[in-house]
């Protein structure tokens, strides 16, 4: 079989968020990520796979295609046997316990993907994003999250409204904050990470008292601030290490 | 002025390590990175800049070029006013004190660049790399390191020989290692980080007793291991937080 023109049109359109929302579909590629999605609660729509892709799922959802066709629809430098269209799941209800990460306008898909992986590693079950944050079904995010997308509840929210309705202690990562190594960090909390260039926006900052920072040990003051995914890694480690 | 054919040939050749070594030159691009290099002990060879690039350094080393010419020689999606050829500095003598990071076959330029930035942030003054590790003057490394390259002593070494000649306590990041949060970490030490896919090589592993790991807090065992740059961030934070 090969790919029909209408299928090709849908696949191409899914690089844009508005078409992902219209179709309620997103793309995942490659053995590792596709297999993680197939073995999760996510629903498959269609799988385009070359003959050497093996799986146990029902065959009416697999369309066998040539390597050449896979190359045509793939966004990877080295296409890897399979491209799947998956159904965007309903958002889960808001969780009011545990440790929640809130992202204020994260733009880079690689950063969001890395943060999703980190949430999975550190047992953070809920990730809340401002509406301006990059879409988690953007294909670069899906690939960078390496399957962790299936295990984290991700919701897009209005941060100001959310903060007004929560009782959990809330922390902001901020260059001028208190030394995180000397801060008492509760087991259940909200941690807000800000935009790559500008940090957490001023309107959110004014709402929150607790600001924490990772101290700089290098001698010079010229060192660029830590990347937001790297900072998230260190702060999550600090929140979890005592419990 | 414009770029001569021989200059164009050199610039293009510097994407390959052997030509960087022949010419003892590497490329850095964009305002931020070039300015950090100009304000360091690194020596400038030639600067190709558009008219809107301003600097105080002596003019005989600047060649003014058009936006179109900059686009032609740039490797960035959005060229930013200047591309510089800098002289690869002599390696500094081996330091025998402090905290040293050793990289065993790190392949990804972005990972090496991020680790260089982390060394700068955490005051690690020496980074040692196996000969198989990606070259730190690879342009993607230079750009990802955001100027931190100028503040870290980076040497390419034979790890086995180095380990035989050091008396410092040595640690390996290893999935099966002791929980790092429960480990006593000395102020002066060597920390070895391994390849993205395979970790630290077996021949090195057998030489070292102390293996440390970052525990997984998530419930499932399916989570992909942490990215090497992310793991380096967390381990450096652990080594430094008590001192």
Automatic annotation (TrEMBL), chains A, B:
Keyword Transferase belongs to the record: yes
Pfam family for this entry, one: SpoU_methylase
Protein name as it appears in the record: RNA methyltransferase
CDD domains: SpoU-like_RNA-MTase
Transmembrane intervals: none
Gene Ontology MF terms: RNA binding; RNA methyltransferase activity
Family: Belongs to the class IV-like SAM-binding methyltransferase superfamily. RNA methyltransferase TrmH family.
Example GO biological process: methylation
Location of the RNA 2-O ribose methyltransferase substrate binding domain: 27-92
UniProt keywords, alphabetically: Methyltransferase, Transferase
Chaperone among keywords: no
One annotated Gene Ontology cellular component of this protein: cytoplasm
Organism: Polaribacter filamentus
């Amino acid at each position: 079989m090969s790919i029909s023109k209408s299928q090709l049109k849908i696949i191409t359109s899914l690089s844009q968020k508005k078409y992902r929302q219209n179709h309620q579909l997103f793309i995942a590629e490659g053995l590792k990520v596709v297999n993680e999605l197939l073995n999760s609660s996510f629903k498959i729509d269609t799988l385009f796979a070359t003959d050497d892709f093996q799986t146990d799922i029902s065959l009416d959802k697999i369309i066998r295609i040539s390597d050449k066709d896979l190359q045509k629809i793939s966004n990877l430098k080295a296409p890897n046997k399979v491209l799947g269209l998956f159904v965007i799941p309903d958002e889960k209800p808001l969780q009011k316990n545990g440790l929640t990460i809130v992202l204020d306008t994260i733009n880079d898909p690689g950063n969001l993907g890395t943060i999703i992986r980190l949430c999975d590693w550190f047992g953070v079950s809920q990730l809340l994003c401002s509406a301006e944050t990059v879409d988690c079904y953007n294909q670069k995010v899906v690939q960078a999250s390496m399957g962790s997308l299936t295990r984290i509840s991700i919701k897009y929210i209005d941060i100001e409204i959310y903060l007004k309705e929560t009782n959990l202690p809330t922390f902001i990562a901020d260059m001028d904050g208190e030394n995180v190594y000397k801060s008492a960090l509760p087991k259940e909390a909200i941690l807000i990470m800000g935009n790559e260039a500008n940090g957490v926006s001023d309107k959110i900052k004014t709402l929150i008292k607790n600001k924490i920072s990772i101290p700089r040990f290098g001698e010079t003051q010229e060192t660029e601030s830590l990347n937001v995914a790297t900072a998230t890694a260190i702060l999550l480690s600090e929140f979890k290490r005592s419990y």
